[in-house]
Amino acid sequence: MLLERDLIQATGFRNVRDGDRVTGFQFRVRMPSYRGMAASLIDGIAVRVGNLVDVPADVPSWTLQGKTYTLQELWASEGVRWQLDEAATVTVPLEGGLPQGVHEVGIELKLRMSYIPVEHQPSTYRESRWITLGPEGGDGVFRYGVSLYSFMHDFGTVLDLQTALAAVADTGATGVEILGEGHVPGYPEPTTEWIDRWFALLEKYSLQPTNYGSWIDTRLHPGRKMTAQEGAAALQRDLKLANRLGFGFVRPKIGVISSDLIPDPIWTESVERSLDLAHELGVVICPEIHSPTPIKHPVVDDYISLIERTGTKNFGLLIDTGIFQDRPIPLRAGETRETRPAFLDGIGVDPADFADIARYVVFVQAKFHDIDHNLEDQQIPWRPVLKALKGAGYDGYLSSEYEGERTPWRSIEQIRRQHSLIRKIASELA
Fold first, then answer.
1. Catalytic residue among 103, 153, 279, 290, which?
2. Active-site residue 419, yes or no?
3. Cβ atoms < 10 Å from Cβ of 199
């Protein structure tokens, strides 16, 4: 399991309880040195949280290797170590704990380095970071998950599978999405060892596989079109793998033939050839409705037509909340309004349109790009969106799909903000 580069880790920031009482809060800190060291060399950690908390270095307690110590107990300890690859948990007493939301947590960590002259000791490490304290309690109106797509560029570089799943679980989410070709090593034939580890990690973090992302690459071979039989074979390959990994939904991203994402005509036959297998496996095939395709569109009508014509329970719609974006994504370096797709300014679908298709929707990817320190989403109008979903009777997963700036580790904190925001709104709708 890997750690974030910041000394203060985003995961693990929570209130702590003693029975029914909230007695304080805790967060995790990684070792700032280049080596692990005896815990008796810790000289304490002062903690400040905005204007709510300001405690001196000897107040917080420390949890290392599963055991909690006061600073004085650490000084007297033998054999207790703060390892380089282990985040220490710091607990600060505070009756009632911290309120839900984004907090600026500042630390002044002191360590004694025996090989540095005493007049320059202790070595002091100062850092502050904005991190989100998420809500506690049940799911309320909806269920909540995260797509590992949210960690794109981080996954395989600064995040491994266990670290990613731990970050998902730490938000209070219960569901996890993956991309078959993005997250399964050896795709489409992962080893038995990897599958066993996958299920062991799901159990460890109490996560449920939700939606599996796949592709029907209709332009697979230059100079010729993919046949419906080949499209069905690609889809069925992923249906089988998704089922082996415990997923109940499969999102096939089907090759398109137009700028408004009309799928290749082979989609209909490819899907129909696969419905019996989907039924046998207990999997629902659900192509996504993704910007720039709105809800009121022939693509959506055609998907619904297939459901009505066949009577299948193994085909449905996946809604990507990016269609509700009503403010532009900021221009990236080198971009202009003229050189990037217009839909990045938002197509502003009216959330009320969801009611017309709600009975066909089986999954919602909660797409977002940026949520600020005040828990205000800069592109997606969550209150009307969630009100529309609830009003139409949707009570399934909202699965976070972060697609914002790809600075390393930023996705972890952004997902925490989104879960805090949407769960707060959902609780007010209940």
1. 290
2. no
3. 12
Q: DSSP for 129-193?
A: EEEEE---S--TTSEEEEEGGGGTTTBTTTB-HHHHHHHHHHTT--EEEEEHHHH-TTTTS--HH
Residue 140 has pLDDT above 80, yes or no: no
| Sequence letter at residue 71 | L
User: 170: closest CA among 205, 198, 208, 200?
Assistant: 205
pTM of the model: 0.95
**CB count in 10 Å sphere of residue 259:** 11
Percent above pLDDT 90 for the chain: 93
**Cβ neighbour number for residue 53 with a 10 Å cutoff:** 18
Q: Residue 88 and residue 125: Cα distance in Å, rounded?
A: 15
Whole-angstrom CA distances from 127 to 48, 110, 165, 381, 421 are 10, 12, 26, 33, 26
Cα angle, residue 267 at apex, residues 264 and 272 outer, rounded to 5°: 165
Closest CA to 290 of 247, 332, 251, 337: 251
Express each pLDDT in 273-331 by its tens digit: 999 999 999 999 999 999 999 999 999 999 999 999 999 999 999 999 999 999 999 98
The candidate with the shortest Cα–Cα distance to 309, out of 334, 346, 272, 341, is 272
Amino acid letter, 60:
P
